[in-house]
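Minutes, project check-in
Item: structure for the 242-residue chain
Input as provided by the requester:
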Amino acid sequence: MTHEPTAVTTAAPAVRTKGLWKIFEHDGIVVEAVRDVDLTIERGDFVVLAGPSGSGKTTLLNMIGGLSRPSRGRIEVDGRDITDLTESRLARWRLDRVGFVFQAYNLLPVLTALENAEFTMLLRGIPPEERRSRVEELFAEIGMEGLEGRRPGKLSGGQQQRVAIARAVVGEPALVLADEPTANLDSKTSDGLIDLMSRFNRELGTTFIFATHDTELMRRARRFIRLVDGRVVEDERRDAPA
């Protein structure tokens, strides 16, 4: 399986949102999860979205990644407006351009750890030898060496999250979106994975956007964005290296 390359505008920021709203309605109750958010995130940035539960972090992340459509407003990624893409074009765009890390891991239970980590590369048509080589090298770095053949049910929560992070970064996407990526990890494993994502950010220029409560990840971020009740209430650029 092969894909045509996605056209991008090289001078464009990684992400730009304009007047972004997400409104949910259920049984007559209206919830404004994201309210009039304007953001510009530059390529190669290392960004944290912080805020209390229900502040809109995950909803905003999902809209940027094309997993949820906005109620109003526009979203551009790499200079391409993804707001009105058809579902098929949106799915192809996500596959080519975005890596996701979900709090619930979202691993396929019938696949091994290695097969899960290489799954998006498989869909992109990357040859088997290259897929396996990339995953095995990365697994050695993150303490998963020797566990390649285990299925998710035989892995701990921390090990499953390491596989999920490997799956997100091993294909070298331009943008990685991570929802509470360290929530289920001990501090040593968490620090090691933050180091890994920071290295991908520095060496490959990958843009990372995290929704998190992790204070260490907040400390390492070069940009800190706080949301409350769906609105951006703080947006701070920091000098601290990722």
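Outcome recorded: The CA atoms of residues 6 and 93 lie 7 Å apart.
No further action items on this chain.
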